[in-house]
Design brief:
Elements lengths: L22 E8 L2 E10 L5 E10 L2 E2 L3 E5 L2 E6 L2 E10 L2 E6 L3 E6 L3 E2 L5 E5 L6 E5 L4 E9 L1 E5 L5 E2 L3 E5 L4 E8 L12 H20 L9 H10 L1 E2 L9 E2 L9 E2 L2 H9 L4 H9 L14 E3 L2 E3 L8 H11 L6 H21 L13 H4 L13 E2 L1 H20 L5 H18 L1 E2 L2 E2 L2 E2 L25 H14 E2 L2 E2 L21 H13 L3 H18 L4 E2 L6 E2 L5 H29 L1
Antiparallel strand pairs: 1-2, 2-3, 3-4, 3-9, 5-6, 6-7, 7-8, 8-17, 9-16, 10-15, 11-12, 12-13, 13-17, 14-16, 18-19, 20-21, 21-22, 23-26, 24-25, 27-28, 29-30
Helix pairs in contact: 1-2, 2-13, 3-4, 3-5, 3-13, 5-8, 6-8, 8-9, 11-12, 12-13
Length: 582
C-alpha cells in the first residue's frame, strides 16, 4: 500500500494515534471540548491534554491546515507541508518541520501542588522535561536537529512553560512518555523510515481485519483505522491489549461495548478478538457481576451492563477462523455461568421469575423512555438476553460433558415463559416496575430487543416485533425512540438517535428469525450512514448527522461486521449464479 492510498481523516473528528499507544494528537481535549490547536493527549489516569502544539514564524502564530492518515499527521500552509508528526512507538512521538518553528507548551499553564506540569532542563542529557500531575508521567523532549529555546524552566505557579524549536535547515524533536527515568533517547530510523514502517504496520492490520473489503464497502479501511488507533497495550487495570471505545473522552472499555469490537476483529485477528471478549471478565466480582467499565486507573462497579455475552460468544465462534480448545471453553463456560447466576440470584426478587435493572445505565440505554416511570424495572430486553445466554451456557455444558445442561435449560425455559406471560400483551412487550408493577412506555426501541431471541419465540410474536421495528425505521436505520412521539429528541442520546449496538442486535434477531428482507434493509442503511457520516457515537435519526464522540469503535466494528457479512453474501450469491449457469 502506498502512502497516498492510506485512508485519510480529519483529526478534529478522529484522533491521530497508533495501535498500542495511550497517547494521541488531537484538538479534542475533554468532554465535548474541541480547541484550535493540536494537543498531545494522554489517557493514563483519564483523558488529559499535556502539551499544546503550535506553529510560529518570526514569533507570530501560523494558521495551518491539518491532514492525517494512519502514518502521519501533517500541517500545511498554502498547500505545502511545513511540519509532520509520526508515532515511532507507543510512547514516542517524532515531529519534524521546516520553514516554521514548533512551540511545545504546557497545556495547563498553571502548576499547583496537585495539578499542572513542572518544567525543567535535564542535566544528564540536556533534554527538557514536563512532569504531569494529571497523568503521573514525564514528557521528555529531545531535540534531534535544529535549535531550541525554553521559557519558564523551573517556574512555579502561574507561568508560561514552553520550548520553541526551529532552524534554517529544519528541525526535529522526539517526545517521550516515560516514568521516572529512561535511557537517553536514540533512534536507528529516520523520520521517513518511521512513517513507512507505521504505514506497513497499519496495512498488515487492515489486510487481516478487512482484507475482504470491496467497492461496496468504501469505509472499511477507515473503520479499521478507528479500531487500530484506539487500541492500547495492557496497563493499570487494563489486563489485555484492549480497544477503547475512543481516544476522545469515551476512553474506557464498557462491559457490553467490548463484544462488538471482538466480533469485528474475530476473522482476521482472533487472539485480539478473544482478548476483547474476556477483558471485563478479568474483573468479574464475587457475585459474578461484570464491572460497568474499565480504564487505566479505575474499575467501576456502580452499574453493570446487559448479559449479551452468550449471544456474542455464539457469534464470535461463528466468525473465528479456529475452534476454541477445551481450556478456552472451560474458561468461558465458568465465566458465563457465574455471569448468568448473578442475574438469577442477585438481580431477581424473591418470588419473581425475571431479573431487573436498577437503572437505565444497567441496560446501556441510560435515558430510554422505558425508564421514565421507574428506574428499577424488569425489562423485556434483559429477559431475552438472559434466555439466549442460558441456552448458550447449557450447550457449553453439554459440549464439555458436564451434567449441568438440563439445569440451565430449566432456567432458560422459566425465563422465556415469564417473558411472554408477564412482559407482553396484545400490544407487545413492555418493562414493568419491579416494585410498583407499573408498565413502562412502549415507544422505545428497547422494548423490541426480544427479537434477538426470535428463533425461540412464536412466529406471531416475531411478526409483531418486526412490525414494531419497521415503525422505528428511518432513512438511516432504526431510531431508538419513535420519531413521531413527544419524547423524541434529535440529540437525545437513547431517546431518538441511531446507535450501532441496537442496530446490530435488531438486525441479528431479524436475520436469525427469518425476516431477511428487513434485516438486509437495516444493514444497508446503517452502512450507508457510516459511509456518509463516519463512526460517531450515535446519529441523528432523521438527518444522519454524527453526534457526540466522533470516533467510536463499536460503530466502526458494527460497520465492519455488516460490511463483511454483506460481501460474503454477495460472493455466495455470485458463486451460486455461476454454478447454476454451468
Amino acid at each position: 500500500m502506498s502512502l497516498s492510498s492510506l485512508p485519510s481523516f480529519d483529526v478534529r473528528e478522529i484522533p491521530f494515534s497508533r495501535r498500542g499507544s495511550w497517547m494521541n494528537l488531537s484538538p479534542v481535549i475533554g468532554l465535548h471540548r474541541r480547541v484550535r490547536d493540536i494537543h498531545l493527549v494522554s489517557h493514563l489516569t483519564g483523558m488529559h491534554a499535556v502539551l499544546r502544539l503550535t506553529l510560529s514564524r518570526d514569533g507570530s502564530f501560523v494558521d495551518a491546515e491539518t491532514v492525517a492518515d494512519p502514518s502521519a499527521l501533517s500541517w500545511l500552509v498554502e498547500g505545502e507541508v511545513v511540519a509532520s508528526a509520526v508515532f515511532e512507538s507507543n510512547d514516542v512521538v517524532r515531529l519534524a518541520g521546516t520553514g516554521v518553528d514548533l512551540v511545545l507548551a504546557d497545556a495547563a499553564e498553571e502548576l499547583t501542588p496537585f495539578s499542572g506540569s513542572y518544567f525543567f532542563r535535564e542535566p544528564r542529557d540536556r533534554s527538557w522535561v514536563f512532569t504531569s500531575y494529571e497523568t503521573g508521567r514525564r514528557y521528555r523532549v529531545t531535540v534531534l536537529s535544529g535549535t531550541a529555546a525554553a521559557e519558564g524552566e523551573e517556574a512555579l505557579g502561574q507561568n508560561a512553560r514552553s520550548i520553541t524549536v526551529g532552524g534554517v535547515a529544519g528541525w526535529e524533536v522526539a517526545i517521550e512518555q516515560i516514568e521516572s527515568a529512561a535511557p537517553v533517547f536514540t533512534s536507528l530510523e529516520t523520520f521517513a523510515e518511521v512513517q513507512r514502517r507505521v504505514a506497513e504496520e497499519f496495512e498488515e492490520y487492515l489486510e487481516a481485519v478487512a482484507g475482504w473489503r470491496s467497492e461496496d464497502t468504501p469505509a472499511a479501511a477507515l473503520a479499521a483505522y478507528v479500531l487500530w488507533s484506539a487500541t492500547v497495550v495492557p496497563a493499570g487495570f487494563v489486563t489485555r491489549e484492549s480497544v477503547l471505545m475512543s481516544k476522545h473522552w469515551m476512553d474506557k472499555v464498557w462491559s457490553w461495548d467490548h463484544t462488538f469490537n471482538a466480533l469485528a476483529l474475530a476473522p482476521g485477528a482472533p487472539e485480539l478478538a478473544l482478548d476483547q471478549f474476556h477483558a471485563p471478565f478479568d474483573h468479574q466480582d464475587a457475585a459474578g457481576a461484570l464491572p460497568d467499565s474499565i480504564t487505566h486507573s479505575e474499575v467501576l462497579y456502580n452499574f453493570v451492563k446487559p448479559p449479551i455475552h452468550g449471544w456474542a460468544l455464539t457469534r464470535l465462534r461463528e466468525r473465528l477462523p479456529r475452534p476454541l480448545d477445551r481450556a478456552e471453553l472451560e474458561a468461558v463456560y465458568a465465566r458465563l455461568a457465574r455471569w448468568s447466576r448473578f442475574w438469577l440470584d442477585s438481580r431477581t426478587a424473591p418470588g419473581r421469575s425475571l431479573p431487573y435493572y436498577q437503572h437505565g445505565n444497567d441496560s446501556g440505554w441510560d435515558n430510554s423512555t422505558a425508564f421514565d416511570h421507574d428506574r428499577v424495572v424488569e425489562a423485556p430486553d434483559l429477559a431475552a438476553f438472559l434466555a439466549v445466554q442460558l441456552d448458550v451456557v447449557a450447550d457449553l455444558a453439554d459440549e464439555l460433558g458436564l451434567d449441568e445442561g438440563a439445569h440451565w435449560r430449566d432456567e432458560r425455559d422459566r425465563v422465556e415463559r415469564a417473558l411472554l406471560a408477564e412482559l407482553r400483551d396484545e400490544d407487545g412487550f413492555f418493562a414493568v416496575g419491579s416494585l410498583s408493577r407499573t408498565r413502562s412506555k412502549r415507544t422505545s426501541l428497547l422494548t423490541l430487543l426480544p427479537v434477538l431471541a426470535s428463533p425461540r419465540l412464536p412466529g406471531d410474536v416475531v411478526d409483531a416485533l418486526a412490525s414494531g421495528i419497521e415503525a422505528h425505521l428511518t432513512e438511516w436505520g432504526p431510531a431508538t425512540q419513535l420519531v413521531d412521539t413527544s419524547e423524541y429528541e434529535s440529540d437525545g442520546y437513547w431517546r431518538g438517535p441511531i446507535w450501532a449496538p441496537s442496530t446490530m442486535l435488531i438486525e441479528e434477531g431479524l436475520r436469525r428469525g427469518g425476516r431477511i428482507g428487513l434485516a438486509d434493509t437495516i444493514s444497508e442503511r446503517f452502512r450507508a450512514l457510516c459511509e456518509r457520516s463516519g463512526f460517531a457515537e450515535n446519529f441523528d435519526a432523521l438527518t444522519g448527522e454524527g453526534l457526540r464522540d466522533r470516533a467510536y469503535t463499536w460503530t466502526a466494528s458494527v460497520y465492519l461486521v455488516f460490511a463483511h457479512d454483506h460481501v460474503e453474501r454477495r460472493r455466495a450469491e455470485e458463486a451460486e449464479g455461476i454454478e447454476a449457469r454451468a
